[in-house]
Write a structure and sequence with these properties.
The chain has about 260 residues and is an alpha/beta fold. The chain contains nine helices and 14 strands. The strands form three sheets. Strands 1-2-3-4-5-6 form a six-stranded mixed beta sheet, with helices on one face.
């Protein structure tokens, strides 16, 4: 299996997974980008996975239908470019011989889902998580609540540490800038930042990430840690109690990140 992040728009990645003959694509916001790679590799489009309804994730679906030779799986609780096969948390889908478990991960949007494949031939597990989990960050809360997003992120953080995190935007360096502001004494964060800066300077993506690394460096997954709790209390001393809940810490960090430059 070959996993390829396809750059699109300003900072999106559309994910292509193929076996040399057939491919599936995740969140194809731009049909031309996908079609060009399918043609260059001589691949049949065997299926499409959609995580949520935003245009930069679904905008290319209709233009790809003429070459599609398989299903389109999409979140059951969101408006999608029909026809699609609706799925929700706990469902399983199969493409390219892989079994994906669907996970409900609301927060960025109300019906956002993710797809997790535990068994990948000659490869580590795969997570396609759209705009829920980013490397060193998470998506904005456009439709969900802090409690929902915190729970969604914790469910993703509980996946095996070797899991490849295929998120949909190259936001890593800006996320790391914020992470180091709130967690400056974290040595794993400093080391990961240096690696990511090298990769981007060479024109390479920082993704896919790894769940195990995210547990060490992503402030939004570490809301029980004293360093993150203390940073949140310094940011909002009048709003947070001495021992804020993890959801309160998450909400404070997310609001802080919204205006961070």
């Amino acid at each position: 299996m070959t996993l390829t992040p396809l750059p699109a728009f300003d900072d999106n990645y559309l994910w292509l997974l193929d076996n040399g003959r057939e491919g599936l694509v995740v969140d194809p916001g731009d049909a031309l980008t996908v079609a060009a790679v399918l043609d260059a590799r001589g691949l049949t489009l065997a299926g499409i996975l959609l995580t949520h309804h935003h245009a930069d994730h679904v905008g290319g679906v209709d233009a790809l239908r003429p070459r599609l030779q398989g299903p389109i799986y999409a979140p059951a609780r969101e408006r999608m470019p029909e026809p699609v096969s609706p799925v929700r948390g706990g469902d399983t889908v199969e493409l390219l011989g892989l079994r994906f478990v669907v996970m409900d991960v609301p927060g960025h949007t109300a019906g956002h889902i993710a797809y997790f494949a535990a068994d990948v031939p000659n490869g580590d597990p795969l997570l396609f998580c759209g705009d829920t989990l980013f490397s060193a960050g998470c998506g904005r809360l456009f439709e969900g609540t802090p409690a929902q997003m915190h729970a969604s992120l914790q469910s993703l953080a509980a996946l095996p540490p070797e899991t490849r995190v295929c998120c949909a935007h190259e936001y890593t360096l800006s996320n790391l800038h914020f992470a180091r502001e709130v967690d400056p004494a974290n040595p794993a964060l400093a080391a990961y930042t240096a690696w990511c800066e090298t990769e981007r300077a060479a024109g390479r993506p920082t993704l896919p990430g790894r769940v195990g690394i995210e547990r060490q460096i992503n402030p939004f997954l570490r809301c029980t840690e004293p360093a993150l709790r203390d940073a949140a209390r310094r940011r909002a001393p009048l709003k947070l109690p001495t021992a804020p809940s993890p959801v309160d810490v998450f909400a404070t960090l997310r609001e802080w990140k919204n205006g961070f430059r």
